[in-house]
Each structure stands twice: as structure tokens, then as C-alpha cells.
Write a structure and sequence with these properties.
The chain has 3 helices and no strands. It is mainly α. α1 packs antiparallel against α2. It starts with a helix and ends in a 6-residue tail after the last helix.
């Protein structure tokens, strides 16, 4: 589900970049950098989930993966809140 959300976010970012020349750049730049950062954090989560499915549990350091997962979730949550608080630039 997170991966689907990441793909939808990416699609939205690319579509908004296409229409960007029609609006003021300043607020749009903040939106785009926040969306990109959020995509990066969601990508970390996807990578960890993929690795957990592919690598036997005893071959990896679970606590390190758990910490990276927690860090990425916290960062993604903060970015989501930041994005939600930003004024929409397409008005």
C-alpha cells in the first residue's frame, strides 16, 4: 500500500511539474521539494521491505533495519504533515 502511495505521489509530482509554468514558482518549489523528500523516505521503506522478503532474517541485523524503518516512518510522517500544511500553489 505504501508503495502504491509512493507511485501516486510521484505521478502527482510529475503532473504538477508539467503545469508548473502556468503558476508562480515559489510555492510550487516548496511543494515539489517536500514531495520529492517524501518519495525518498517511502523509497527507503520499500527497499527495507523488499530486502526483508529476499534475505533470510538471520543474515541481517534486524535492529538496524528496525531503526531505519522507524526513522523513515517518522520522516515521512513529518513531511506529510508539512505538505498538508503548505498552501496549495495551483489556486
Amino acid at each position: 500500500m505504501r508503495h502504491s502511495f509512493r507511485k501516486d505521489l510521484k505521478t502527482f509530482r510529475y503532473l504538477s511539474e508539467f503545469f508548473l509554468p502556468l503558476w508562480c514558482l515559489s510555492p510550487a518549489s516548496a511543494h515539489h521539494s517536500t514531495m520529492k523528500a517524501m518519495q525518498d523516505e517511502l523509497g527507503v521503506l520499500t527497499d527495507i521491505a523488499t530486502m526483508r522478503r529476499a534475505v533470510p532474517p538471520e543474515a541481517t541485523t534486524r535492529s538496524e533495519q528496525d531503526q531505519k524503518t522507524a526513522d523513515a516512518l517518522i520522516a515521512a510522517d513529518l513531511l506529510w504533515r508539512k505538505l498538508a500544511a503548505q498552501e496549495t500553489w495551483w489556486r
